Amino acid sequence: MSEPVFSTEIKQQMSENQRQIDQLNEQLSRKTDEIKIIQTISSEILNTLDLEVLFGNIMALMHEVFGFDYCMILLNEGSLLRVAASHGHDDQGLGITVPIGKGVIGTVAQRRKIMRMMGLRMRRRYVQKVTGTDTEALPTLEDADSQIAIPLQVKDKLVGVYVVESEKANAFNALDEEILTIVSNQVAAAIDNAAAYRELQLLAEANSRFVPREFLSLLQKESITETELNDQTEGKMTVLFSDIRDFTPLSESMTPAEAFAFVNDYLGTMAPIIREYGGFIDKYIGDAIMAIFPGSPQDAVAAGLKMEESLQHFNQHTATAGKPPIRIGIGIHTGQLVAGIIGFADRLEGTVIGDCVNTASRLEGATKDLPVSLLVSETVVEELGDAAEYAIDSLGEVEIKGKKEKLKVYGIAPRS
Amino acid sequence: MISEELMPALQGIVPAWIVTTSDDNVPNCTCISQVYPVDENHVALSNQFFSKTFRNLQSNPHAVVQVIHPADIGMWLLEIEHVRTESDGPLFDEMDMQLAAIASMSNMEDVFKLQSAYVFKVHSVTQLSEALHPAATL
Question: Distance of CA B96 to CAs A79, A408, B51, B86, B104, Å?
Fold first, then answer.
C-alpha cells in the first residue's frame, strides 16, 4: 500500500483547519471555565445574607481562585464611597472614603464603567510635574502601580466599586478584566441583597422598640408587617400604671431639655424592670408608664416593688446632681383585656383596651391620697400565688371615678 | 500587527515619543504619556494640549512613535498614519475616563480634558534593534 499523497495545498488546508479546531476548543474550554466559575460563585460563595461573611467569601474567592492579592470593596453612600472590606493590605483602610469622581475608584463610580489602569505611579507623577500639585491620597496600596476598578451595579443602582490592585506596573491584562466583569454582577447582587437584609433587620429592631415583640406575639404575629387594623386578642392580663408624683412643679424648675433628659433617665431606670419581670411597656404617657403583664399578677407586683426599690437608688444618684428626690405612685389591676390594633388607615397603634386599664390608672391616682405608693386591687391580692412573700395591708375602699361601686384596695410591701 | 507581546508597551507605563513633521518638513519630537491600543491595526493618541504635534498632523498625517516595553525596556517603532478623529464613542469615553481618573487626583479634571482621540492606522511595527540593524534580521 502506498502512502496517500497530499498536495502542498491540501496539507496547508489541513493544518489551517487543525489550527481553527484548536482555537475553537480553546474558546470552548474558556467558556466552560467561565460557567464553572459562575456556578461556584452563585451556589456556594455568594449564598449568604450575612454581609461580613459575604465580604470574607468574596475576598477569599478573588485571592484563591483568581489570584488577586490586594482587593477592596467600597460601598456607595451617595456622594462618596466607603471602604467596607479589604484583603491583603497591611492597614485595612476600613471606613476611608473616596468622593465620587475622584481618582480611579471615584471615576469608575461616576461613569459606571470598568477601568484598568497601569503605570499609576508614573501617571500620577506626570500630573504632579505638569500641574505642580500633590495628588490626593486615596485608599490604595502605598505603592500601587496597577489597578482595576469595576462598578458593582444592580440594574441602574450603583452598589459600590470593587478594586483589585498590585504594586507591579503591568499586573493585569484583558483576561483579568473579563473575569471581573463576569463575576461583578453576581457580587453586586449578593452585596445588595445582604445590605438590604441588614437594613431590614435594623428596621425590624427599630420597630420592635415602638411595637414590642411581646405585643406582636399576643396577636400571634411574627412581624409588624403582618398586622392589620382590627387585629385583636382577648385575655386575662395585669396592667401596671406608674407615675411620678408632682412632676409638673419639679419640671417647671428645669429647662425643657433638662426635663426631657430627667424623664429619660428615670424611664431608663424603670423600663428594664418591666421586661425583667415578664412584662412589656404598652406606652409611655409623659413620665407615666403603662405596662402589661400577660402572665401572673405576681409578676406585676414583683416589678412594682422592684421599681420602688430602684427609685431609692435613682434618688440617691440625682441628689448628687442637686436634684430633689421624687416619689412615684403605682397601681396594679388584673382583668379581661383586648390587645389589638387601633386607629385608622395610615396611622395605627397597637394598644390594650379594657375597663381593667382604667381601673389600674385610677388605682395609681389614688396613691396620692393614701400613705402607700403601690396600690393593688382585691382581684390582684386574690390571685397572688404566694402572698406570704408580701405584707398586704388593707386600706379600705376607694371611690373610682366613673364606677358606681367602691373598690377594695390594698397596699403591698415586701415582708421584711 | 499589534501583537499580545506589544500590549504592555501600550499601557502608559513608560512614556512614549512621537515624531511628526510640519508642512515645511521640520521634524518635531515630543513625549506623550500613552499610545492607546484600539484594535489589531490601530492605535490612538489623546489630544489634550500639545498642539504642535496635532497641527503637524493636519498637513502630514504620517508619524512615527516609539513605545517602550516595561518588562525589558525593549523599544518598538510604529509607523502610523492619522486616519480619523473621534470626539465621542467608546474609544473616546475610555480615554477620557482614564484621563479624568488621574487628573481628578490633583483636582485638575477641568484642566486635563480630552479634546479628541486621534486614531492612527499602524503601517509597521519594528523592534528598534531590527530598525537599526535591518540586515541582521534577514
Answer: 21, 86, 18, 11, 12
In a domain, A281, yes or no: yes
Q: Collapse the DSSP code of B34 into the 3-class scheme (helix H, G, I; strand E, B; otherwise coil) and give the result.
A: coil
A4 within some domain: no
Look at chain A and report how many structural domains it folds into: 2
Nearest Cα residue in chain B from A172? B8
- What pLDDT, on the 0 to 100 scale, is given for residue A51? 86
Determine the Cα–Cα distance for residues A304 and A78; give it in Å rounded to an integer: 49
More confident residue, A347 or A4: A347
Inspect the interface and report whether the beta carbons of A122 and B101 lie closer than 8 Å. no
User: Over 60: is that where the pLDDT of A281 sits?
Assistant: yes
C-alpha cell read off for A222: 411574627
- Residue B44 inside a domain? The answer is yes
Domain span at residue A396? 213-414
Chain A residues whose CB is inside 8 A of the B11 CB are: 118-119, 170
Cβ of B93 within 8 Å of Cβ of A133? The answer is: no
Residue A155 lies in a domain: yes
* Cα A51 from Cα A194, distance rounded (Å): 5
Would you call A170 and B70 a contact, using CB atoms and an 8 Å cutoff? yes
Cα A36-A42-A46 angle, rounded to 5 deg = 130
Same domain, residue pair A218 and A296:
yes
Give pLDDT tens digits for A52-96: 888 888 888 788 777 888 889 999 998 899 998 888 876 667 888
Q: Which residues of A241-274 are buried (b: 16+ CB within 10 A; e: fewer)?
A: bbbbeebeebbeeeeeeebeebbeebeeebbebb
- In this structure, the answer to whether residues A267 and A379 fall within a common structural domain is yes
Mean pLDDT of chain B: 87
Contact: B104, A170; criterion CB under 8 Å: no
Give φ, ψ of B83 to 5 degrees. -115, -30
Nearest to B12 among A113, A123, A127 (CB): A123
Residue B67 has a CB neighbour count (10 Å cut-off) of: 27
More confident residue, A186 or B124: B124
**CATH value at residue A83:** 3.30.450.40
Backbone φ and ψ for A158, nearest 5 degrees, come out as: -85, 110
Average pLDDT over residues A181-200: 87
Q: Which of A178-187, A307-316, A372-381 has the lowest mean pLDDT?
A: A178-187
Out of A167, A202, A237, a domain closes at: A202
Position of cell 486614531?
B119
Q: Determine the residue type at A110.
A: Q
Q: In this structure, what CATH number is given to the domain that contains residue B59? A: 2.30.110.10
β-bridge pairing B27-32 and B16-21: antiparallel
Interfacial A residues in 95-134 facing B (CB < 8 Å): 101-104, 106-108, 111, 113, 115, 117-119, 122-124, 126-128, 131, 133-134
Split at pLDDT 50, 70, 90, the class of A33 is confident
Tens of pLDDT, residues B79-106: 999 999 999 999 999 999 988 888 888 7
Residues A159 and A280 in one domain: no
What distance in Å separates residue B24's CA from the closest CA in chain A? 30
Q: Does residue A89 sit in the same domain as residue A228?
A: no
